[in-house]
């Protein structure tokens, strides 16, 4: 049913709380898992990219310890738009994400990334509260 699952991750508590749900769905559906982290800085930042790459590698290893192989992607841009673009690019059948990640729009408007993804996604979105 869900051949490819996209799991956008950041260091938020909501991401951590979504992991058991992702594990359960991936195992149940025997899905391919793609972990995505989005760097919001407009210009490349080597130090930040290295930190995000390390974060993705540790997340990949955590899933591997549960018997799940995962692909990792690091992209730059506005998180909601990048998430939806990547979902389209990899033909994701499902996006799973926490209800509120660490990103907010620059002007402080309180619309969450997850709310924007719901409205823009090319596939179903599961928000884990």
Helix-strand layout with pairing:
Layout (H helix, E strand, L loop, with lengths): L3 E5 L4 H17 L2 E8 L6 H19 L5 E7 L2 H11 L4 E5 L14 H8 L4 E4 L1
Parallel strand pairs: 1-2, 1-4, 2-3, 4-5
Family: Belongs to the universal stress protein A family.
Protein name: Universal stress protein
InterPro entries: Rossmann-like_a/b/a_fold, Universal_stress_UspA, UspA
CA(first)-CA(last) distance: 22 Å
- In CATH, what is the class? Alpha Beta
The helix count comes to: 4
User: What name goes with the CATH superfamily?
Assistant: HUPs
Oligomer: single chain
- The radius of gyration computed from the alpha-carbon positions, rounded to a whole number of angstroms, is 14 Å
Overall, the morphology is globular
Description:
The chain has 129 residues and is of the alpha/beta class. The chain has one domain (4-128): Rossmann fold. Helices cover 43% and strands 22% of the residues. It contains four helices and five strands, in the order βαβαβαβαβ. It has a five-stranded parallel β-sheet with strand order 3-2-1-4-5, sandwiched between helices. Strand 4 (94-98), helix 4 (113-120) and strand 5 form a beta-alpha-beta unit. Helix 3 packs parallel to helix 4. The two termini are 22 Å apart. The model is unreliable at 101-108 (pLDDT under 50).
